[in-house]
Amino acid sequence: MDHKMAPLELRDHIIGFLKENKDGALGTCMNNVPRTSPVQYFLGEELDLYILSAGGDKFNAIKDNPNVCLLVNTDYLDHRKIKGIQVFGKATTSLHEKSLQQEAMKFVPNPHLMDQRIKDLNVIKIVPEEIVYLDALETGDRTKQILRHQQVVIKEDQLTPIH
């Protein structure tokens, strides 16, 4: 890794990457069984993320366990050539907080297209607690920079050699 980023610099890299992409995998857990769901997301304030969805078991999982993880990454070339983020946080849904639909409308990328459709969709809001950022595309360096409570923590990858 070239250098440890300052919190605002890392935040800018995270926001830039999230804006460059829109697809991710949402990890939830219900009855001690993990699951992932393909989703599309958009950014709100303070790195909050919104997901619009018709429904599914992810809503039941969030009701039982609001701890979630959203993975957003580039195509997986190999274990040394990838860029992505993992957003760990607490999720709420419009099934229990009806105001989330109106809140999400403030940030949806194309609000004029969503005016009618959002009434038929549910909203998931993720408030991040920790965001793990990895950019190993150019150098293959898998050192992760973690944004937690406006502080940056470095986690160097300990790859186990295959014999």
In short:
This protein has 4 helices and 8 strands, in the order H-E-E-E-H-E-E-H-H-E-E-E. With 163 residues, it is of the alpha+beta class.
List the helices and strands and how they pair.
Blueprint: H1 7-20, E1 23-30, E2 33-43, E3 49-53, H2 57-64, E4 67-73, E5 83-93, H3 99-105, H4 111-114, E6 122-135, E7 144-148, E8 151-155
Antiparallel strand pairs: 1-2, 1-4, 2-3, 3-6, 4-5, 5-6, 6-7, 7-8
Structure description:
With 163 residues, this protein is α+β, with helices and mostly antiparallel strands. The chain has one domain (7-155): Pnp Oxidase, Chain A (Roll). Helices cover 20% and strands 40% of the residues. The protein has helices at 7-20, 57-64, 99-105, 111-114, and strands at residues 23-30, 33-43, 49-53, 67-73, 83-93, 122-135, 144-148, 151-155. It has a 6-stranded antiparallel barrel. A hairpin with a 2-residue loop joins β7 (144-148) and β8.
Report Rg: 17 Å
Which CATH architecture would you pick? Roll
How would you name the oligomeric state of the polypeptide chains in this document?
A: single chain
Q: Which H/E pattern describes the elements?
A: HEEEHEEHHEEE
- The residue ranges in which pLDDT falls below 50 over 5 or more consecutive positions are none
Specify the CATH class: Mainly Beta
